[in-house]
Predict the structure.
Amino acid sequence: MENQTYTIKEVAEKTNLTIPTIRYYETEGVLPPVERSESGNRVFTDSDIGWLDLICCLRGTGMPIKKIKQFVQWCLEGDDTIDDRIEMLIEHGKTVDEQLQVLTNYKAAIEWKINYHREMKMQIDARRNAVRLMEQQDLKS
Amino acid sequence: MENQTYTIKEVAEKTNLTIPTIRYYETEGVLPPVERSESGNRVFTDSDIGWLDLICCLRGTGMPIKKIKQFVQWCLEGDDTIDDRIEMLIEHGKTVDEQLQVLTNYKAAIEWKINYHREMKMQIDARRNAVRLMEQQDLKS
DNA sequence: TTATAACCTAAAGTGCACTTTATGTCAAGA
DNA sequence: TCTTGACATAAAGTGCACTTTAGGTTATAA
């Protein structure tokens, strides 16, 4: 299971990224340089997929590309950057907590709206039924 | 407490939106037309602030401007659109649930990363201490 | 051997949600 | 009266994260 390699297409499928996005990440330096075959094609390893998973996680929690790049660069620089890395992750974790809080509140507001609209609908239907009944009365008379 | 009015500046403070953003929302038709004073200045009511709160809620949960506009238009059109509105809200609520799920998973991944880095740091520190001790030994000898 | 599919690069383009700029009106206080 | 500050509009600009395009190389398979 080790030393397995993947084409860019396979990696795109595994990570749910598009092929251009993966290339873009590499040229931007967000994804560390990927090994190449003799003909110049990218040869991805499980390690590369690990980097992409990390990138997806950070992007998906709203971290801008530049900051992710910084983090990845620190990782590549080695031991001396360990404190910076930990600090960035902790700070980012806090923003994710805030996002969760905000999102939870918004979710509650939406649920409230749904219920409000449902009650509105019941009133509308009731009114329509009343009108229909009155029309039937008119027909009989 | 009723019939109170607000300037655009006051509304910006209340909603945490910028003044240009509020104007932008109105010109885009996301915010229904706001009353004007004789001189053409916008005169906001609590109802307008209510619309903006709704817009913030939907934007903050990732709904695109166009769709919010659609929803607001339906609200203005009245009773006949009640089913469409309820459906949109329910569908959107589902996407918010998904966002919460994804975000929660990412949060866990970040926590995992933090712990991983903390352990890495402990190893680095231990190694450095070992080196320091060895150097002290060298000095003594 | 030739065609087709998968890969490559560099550069330009896109979409979204604002933001900024330039210009102008109007009401109130010094 | 004049200037200052808050408001207005229309149009152009910005920032971000990709995506698309154009043009080219290489490996496999009919």
